């Protein structure tokens, strides 16, 4: 068992890591922060992904998908379980995550069910959203689980 903190790597991080540099300044800054985290901090964590990450990563333009899948190669896969589906359904039913964001609920559920310490994402709408955290946490706790710390690569950079 690794002594490194466990980290569920959500698809948006891999997408920012492998995408062409954006013309949007905020997206460009996120891409740079992701590259910095990947090169400076990644080795300090035990990375995990799910079938949901792989499914999203292989979608879209074939060349971009291949880049994402190359980055994901060798990162262990968390097992899909009925508990993940149950938690995702509860997150949606209780409005902690909107119905249209089912995949986001599945990411949160996977990280929670498997006891991940962190869920790393750039999704501020449905996951790394301070207004949603209390509701997400309440659903997780209600099912006897602990919500992972949901954060962006910027939040996991060491301060000096």
Write the layout of secondary structure elements.
Elements: E1 6-9, H1 11-18, H2 25-40, E2 46-48, H3 51-57, H4 62-72, H5 82-93, H6 102-113, E3 118-120, H7 130-142, E4 149-151
Parallel strand pairs: 1-2, 1-3, 3-4
Description:
There is one protein chain. Strands 2-1-3-4 form a four-stranded parallel beta sheet. It has a single domain, classed as 5'-nuclease (Rossmann fold, 3-Layer(aba) Sandwich). The protein has seven helices and four strands. The chain is globular. It is α/β, with parallel strands linked by helices and 160 residues long. It has helices at 11-18, 25-40, 51-57, 62-72, 82-93, 102-113, 130-142, and strands at residues 6-9, 46-48, 118-120, 149-151. Strand 3 (118-120), helix 7 (130-142) and strand 4 (149-151) form a beta-alpha-beta unit.
- What proportion of the residues form beta strands (DSSP E)? 5-15%
Total domain modules: 1
Taking the sheet with the most strands, its summary is:
4 strands, parallel
Proportion of helical residues: 40-55%
The overall average pLDDT, rounded, is: 95
Identify the strand order in the major beta sheet. 2-1-3-4
Series of secondary-structure elements, N-terminal to C-terminal: EHHEHHHHEHE
CATH level 4 superfamily: 5'-nuclease
Q: Which architecture per CATH? A: 3-Layer(aba) Sandwich
CATH class: Alpha Beta
Poorly predicted tracts of residues: none
Structural category: alpha/beta
Number of helical elements: 7
Q: Remind me, CATH topology?
A: Rossmann fold
Instruction: Evaluate the radius of gyration.
Output: 15 Å
| Rough outline | globular
How many DSSP E strands?
4
Span from first to last CA?
Answer: 29 Å
